[in-house]
C-alpha cells in the first residue's frame, strides 16, 4: 500500500470521527475486540474471484452524502470519492487535476479565476461553473443549516459571513460564473491556503436542477445521489454498509481501475479480524489486543496521521469546568504515555500541543511547527493535585461531578474507562460520569454544546496551523464549548489579517496563540496524536493517504491478481 511520507500520513480506513475534524468533535478510536482470529498467516481468500472489487470497513453509518451538511469523516470519505472539486490530492498530497484545468490569482491575492475542464455528471449533465456557485451559495445560506459552510467560507469568500448571518442574499456571495467554464472567486482578504481549501468537501460542486428535483430526498439514498467523481454510489443499506462503483462518466475514467468498493459497517474489531481471516473483507483496523499477534503479518501496517484527541471543556455546562485550575488539574492527571503504550498500542503518541507533530513546517524551513514550538503538554500527578486543591477551594466544595461524553464503540469504551480511573484516582472528590452514545448522537451533542466534558478529536482541513487554532475564536462555528478570550481572538485575527502575507510573523503569532490556549487558559487538553494499526490485503495496490480530503484515496487503486 503506498503511503504519503511528505506530510504526516493522515487518516485510516476505519473511517471514524470527527468533528472534523474535522468534525466539530470526534471520539476515541475504533472498536472493541473480544475474540479475534488466531492465525497470523495471510488468508488467500480475499478477491479470489480476480475482479477489481474490494471490501473495506467503516465504523459508522454515513449521516449524510450532502456536501453542504457533511461534518464527519465517514461522509468525507465517500462523498470525496463520488464528488470532485476544483482539485484532488495526489499520493504526495500535492494538488492535482480536478474540475479545474488551471487557476490564477490576482496580484493583490483577492481574486481567483478557475478554468474548468469538460466533464459530466453521472446523469449526463455538463459540470459547469454554476455548479460551484450554487453549491457555495447553498453552503452559506442560513436556510440550508450547514455547519461547515459558514465556518469555512466565512471570512474567506467575500460576503460569506454577511450571507450566513442573513444580512445579504446568497447572490451577494463573492463567487461568479463568468461563463459555463470560468469560475471567479473574490476573497475577503489574501488567504495563503485558499487553493488547498477547495479540496474540502464543502467546496464540492452541486447540480442545482438535480437538487431541486429531489428536494428533501437529495443525498439520503443511493438513488438520490449524483456523482462527478471517480465513483458513484449504487447501494446504501443504512446501518449495514454501502457500495460505490466506477463512474464511467468521470472525465478521467480510464485511470480508475477498481470496479466496485463495498463498505461494511463493523463496530467490533474482533468481528473485523474474523471477517478478514475468512476473506470476506480486505481491510480491518486492529487494537491493542491484536497488534502483537499480527505485527509480523505481511498485511500489517501502522498509518500515522495529524489527528488530535483531546478533552473539550464546556465552561458554561459545569461550574467546575469554568475554573482554570480544575481544567489544568484534569490535563495534568492523564498519564498519556501509559495510554498510548498499553491501552492503545497502535502507534499513537502523546500529544505535545494542539497543532500536531509532523503536520506543517515553519516558513522557508524544514523545521516542524511542533519542534519549533516545543511541548506544551505535561502529565504530572503532583501538579494535578496542586491545581485541583486550588479549584476545590475556589469552588467552596470538596466534591465535583463531571459528565464525560464519548462514543459507544469498543476502544472508545476502554479509553473512557481509563480516563475515569485516572481522574478519580488522582483528584480527590471528583466523580466522572461516563456518557457513551452512538457516533451520530455524539456529533449532534457536540454541535449543540450538549456536553460538559467531551473526548473529542480534530483532523486538518488544509495544511496550515489555522485549521486547528481558529477553532476557538469567540463565537466561532466550532467553538461550541463557550471559551472566549479577547487576547486569543486578537492573535488569530492578526495571523490571518495583518500578517497574512508575512509568513514568519504569521507563524510566530500562531505559536503565541497556542501557548495562550494551553498554558494559560487550558481551554482544551490535548491527549494523544493518532495512528492506526490495520490489516490491508497486500495485493491491493495504489491506495494512499492524503493530508486532507478523503481519508483514503481510491482513484488510483487496483487489485493485483
From TrEMBL:
Localization: Cell membrane
InterPro entries: Peptide/Ni-bd, SBP_5, SBP_5_dom
Domain Solute-binding protein family: residue ranges: 95-480
Domain of life: Bacteria
UniProt xrefs under Pfam families: SBP_bac_5
Stretch list, region Disordered: 27-52
GO cellular component terms given for this protein: ATP-binding cassette (ABC) transporter complex; outer membrane-bounded periplasmic space
Span of the signal peptide: 1-20
Membrane topology term: Lipid-anchor
Chief location bin: membrane
A GO term for molecular function: peptide transmembrane transporter activity
GO biological process: peptide transport
Alphabetical UniProt keywords: Lipoprotein, Palmitate, Peptide transport, Protein transport, Signal, Transport
Family under the similarity heading: Belongs to the bacterial solute-binding protein 5 family.
Record-linked PANTHER family: PERIPLASMIC BINDING COMPONENT OF ABC TRANSPORTER (PTHR30290), PERIPLASMIC OLIGOPEPTIDE-BINDING PROTEIN-RELATED (PTHR30290:SF10)
Protein name: Oligopeptide transport system substrate-binding protein
Organism the protein comes from: Halobacillus alkaliphilus
